[in-house]
Design brief:
Elements (H helix, E strand, L loop, with lengths): L5 H15 L4 H5 L2 E8 L10 H12 L4 E11 L3 E14 L2 E16 L2 E11 L4
Parallel strand pairs: 1-5
Antiparallel strand pairs: 2-3, 3-4, 4-5
Length: 128
């Protein structure tokens, strides 16, 4: 397996953002490895299984989120890579659009099934 380029890894985040637009929690959860961990933006619960990750996205996707990458730093280590930075979400909450800016870190691992998310941490950007 070849060393991924920064463009390859940035493309994985783009795929995740495009998959959110499907509003299908099964499709989003399929981007995560079986042993993935999700520390989500809008939940205190750490998600450590495919069913728990799917459950989070079932509720999150009900807000019809759209995401925009503001900043990203990509590093690759052979069959693993990270992408960390800032993204902005537009989401419908109680009939009104809200904007949430959050920090993110995605850790990817390449295996026989391609690149999967193994660790995803997202947290709202503090006011200060």
């Amino acid at each position: 397996m070849d060393q991924p380029s920064r463009t390859d890894i940035a493309g994985l985040l783009h795929i995740w953002i495009e998959t959110l637009k499907t509003l299908d929690p099964d499709k989003v959860a399929a981007l995560y490895a079986e042993d993935a961990i999700l520390l989500p933006t809008l939940s205190k619960e750490i998600r450590q299984s495919q069913s728990a990750i799917r459950d989070y996205f079932k509720h999150f996707l009900a807000m019809k989120p759209r995401a925009e990458v503001l900043q990203q730093t990509i590093r690759s280590y052979g069959q693993a890579a990270t992408n960390s930075g800032l993204y902005k979400f537009f989401a419908e909450i109680d009939g009104a659009e809200h904007i949430v800016v959050a920090r993110f870190t995605f850790v990817y691992r390449q295996d026989n099934d391609g690149w999967k998310i193994v660790d995803h941490h997202s947290s709202m950007l503090p006011d200060t």
